[in-house]
Amino acid sequence: MNDPSDTVRFTVGRMEVIPNSPNSVAERVRFTIDFRHPEGSVLSDLGNKIEPTCRRAVTCCEVEVREVFHRQPCCFDPRILGVIEAAATKLSLPAIRMPSGAFHDALFMNEVCPAGMIFVPCEKGISHNPAEYASPDDLAAGARVLALALLDLANK
Question: CA 125, CA 139: separation in Å to the nearest integer?
Fold first, then answer.
């Protein structure tokens, strides 16, 4: 699939090779694929391509593809996003609205109440990785935005 906006996130997060020996042909290989995109139709299109792609890649062995988890993307309440953005502005902090493919608590809470998320910058843009690092100053700024946003919401 062509993704000119570089929005699709595709991860092979787990791979199990049996017998896991450097000089043996594998008897079985299991792996997980996790992909995310802010548009549900793109996720469906990609999901429909996984099994045929795997089957085309092998010629003399069995292929089994199972979907073990499926989650459509969500859109957060614009009012909550506005309160967060206003809090950042009041604190003279930059704010941009951006999609997140990560499965944070807010994704699931959004089904029962209005939700939003606050992100702080990570060094080199790396997140959800052992190399992730956010400076104490950036974390404190994010906490101040959260506190101000909660105060504003509590007073509405």
Answer: 15
Q: Examine the domain organization and report whether 24 and 65 are in the same domain.
A: yes
Burial class of residue 74 (count of CB atoms within 10 Å of its CB; 0-12, 13-18, 19+): middle
Would you call 67 exposed, middle or buried from its count of C-beta atoms within 10 A (0-12, 13-18, 19+)?
A: exposed
Q: What is the tens place of the pLDDT at every residue in 10-46?
A: 889 899 999 999 999 999 999 999 988 888 998 899 8
Whole-angstrom Cα distance, residue 147 to residue 155? 12
Distance (Å, rounded) from C-alpha 67 to C-alpha 112?
A: 25
Range of the domain at 123: 78-154
Q: How far apart are alpha carbons 154 and 150 in whole angstroms?
A: 6
* pTM for the full predicted model: 0.75
Q: From CA 80, how far away is CA 93, in angstroms rounded?
A: 17
Same-domain check for residues 64 and 123: no
Q: How many domains does the chain have?
A: 2
pLDDT tens by residue, 82-91: 999 999 999 9
Q: 16 and 67 share a domain?
A: yes
- Give mean pLDDT, residues 139-149: 98
